[in-house]
Fold:
Amino acid sequence: MCGILGVLTTPAQTTSPDFSKRLEDATRLLSHRGPDAGGVKILPEHGVGLGHRRLSILDLDPRSNQPFTSAEGLLHMTYNGEIYNFKALKKELEDKGHRFRTTSDTEVLIEGYKAWGLEELLSRITGLFAFALYDEKKRALFLARDRAGKKPLYYSRKNQSFLFASELKALFHLDPSLKEISPAGLEAYLSLKFVPSPHTLLKDVQKVPPGHYLEVHNGEAKTKRYWQPLPRRLNQRKTLDDLLGEMEKRFTTAVERRLVSDVPVCLFLSGGIDSSLITAYLNKIGVTDMTTYSIGYKNLPAFTELDYSRLVAKKFSINYQEIILDPEDAIETLEDDGVLLDEPVSDWVWVPLHHLSRRAHEDGFKVTMVGEGSDEIFFGYDSMMKGLNELKRAQNPLWKAAARAATPLLAPLYHYSTVGHRTYDRLRRLAAGEPPYLGSSVGFNKTQRHQIVGPNFADREDESLAWDFIATLYREFIQTYASHSDSRPVGWQGPSGEETHTLLRKNLSIPLPSGPASPLGVSPGERQRVDPVNLICYIEFFTKMSEVLLQRVDRITMLHSLEARAPFLDHELVEFAFSIPGDIKIKNHRLKGFLKEFASATLPPEIIQRKKMGFSFPFKEWLRGSLGRHVQDTFQQSHLFRDGWVDKTFCLNLLKNHRAGGRDHAAILWMLFDLCRWYDRWIRR
Structure:
């Protein structure tokens, strides 16, 4: 895994005395992503500069260092990632007459581009990646990002230059003027706890969306989608046994692929079903010496899964390691400027992930496996089951009528109330015909906007960036999945914003049949056009998972020069999961019902039947102790409030109420706390 960056500008700029030094200095800022080697390449006649930092995992030979140039000297690549099927692709290319100078997957990408073009190359490769390829003959720059968005890629078009990088800090060095807040981006962050692609918190910085590539040519930048996980049809005619057999094959392949490495691989084991399944299948395919790392919390058994991870360790042959954290460890981590990322992370689990990654790095590992993705594609969150109920209510005319009647009556009360807005906003959305389910990553609802925003937002109209993004996901799902069409319009973007509500009402107002025939109330042989279970999975996949969890995993693991691989996000496994009908996916009306059925053949029942806990962190509890004072000091001093972006008094009152034992505001307080730290360190310093 690596760090990449580049500049596309005028030839005159690339020949200026300080251009090479700025490029080299910016590249060095990514050294944690690639401590093994680094380099830059400048093409002055094209106005191109490329930088690279290398973490050597495949083909450790220095000949594979980057930026990498093709044999004839016309193609140049800086690449971050691993292509698991590169050997098969290399054999296919060799059969077509291509010759190779290295055994790297980088050269396979370049030769594959020559043979098939970019789109077909992207359709063939399996892995995690973000890369830039400059084609001298076409005078075009291509940026591409993997299907699920495991690897980040930011870019900016400003001051007659096009810049890109794996991390924002490198862009800041290349152009300090990029440190300008986007009001629309900040409002989206406060609403969803993330800024949806292609937008960011910064006015002039964007990110390549998952499953997309960007072409920069003749001063224009065009983005195109190359992957959509939704199938043409559900696997309605397959029996449960058929689906379990297919799951066996696909999951085995997914785990095997992520063992492709010339350096040792470890695993982060939580004791939950996801990482435990990975452990079981590693053992099943003959890996008997895997090192695993698990984490627990001092004097907080309710947040510690070590009993379960120990059970998995006892059943399978692994080298089991434990880490124990206490509040002082957490505060020390949060006060460490070296761990303060250049983009806020609204999920506090990055703290324990930091300690796991640091330990794995200290023990000499460069690659780890993680369980990310399972909950989203196999319906694993309690909030998803609540979302299913929200979708059902949206079909009920009586609920809609009640919502229309109640919303205006309750509006004056909720204008001042600081609690209950989740429930009230559900009523408001139901009355307005807006998307019923927003995903599990939600910050402040529309009904609370006036309480959280500072003076900078006082005269602004309500931004719709966050809610348009959610509505777009509904439109994509309806168009590609629910229509049951034989065609699959991968690049479809949906109708215009003003058509959104009409389309949603037309497709989501189909009554869901009721009765005892199945968990969803669907009689045998009958399927509703809109499969609500898979709709919710789709929303989770492109919200919390792609924009929060994968960003957190990449940034924290790479901070410790560690590559994270997620078997559940193998794209063929993801596509299979979306083809499973919803009533089978939540078999017996259980979260992960299908996956638990699959896991029952290999895992102890204690792992499968336990209540879901998730990879957690006791921020809620520690906030009422010494960590709470640290958060209060941060709020008191932060420029985020002084500069008028967020209301300071409102945030301090939330903290005071939480610390006094009132409502649980921990998730919102963390989001604000990390936002303050980021703003003070990266925007104002």
Remarks:
- The chain is about 45% helix and 15% strand.
- The longest helix spans residues 532-559.
- The CA atoms of residues 520 and 583 lie 6 Å apart.
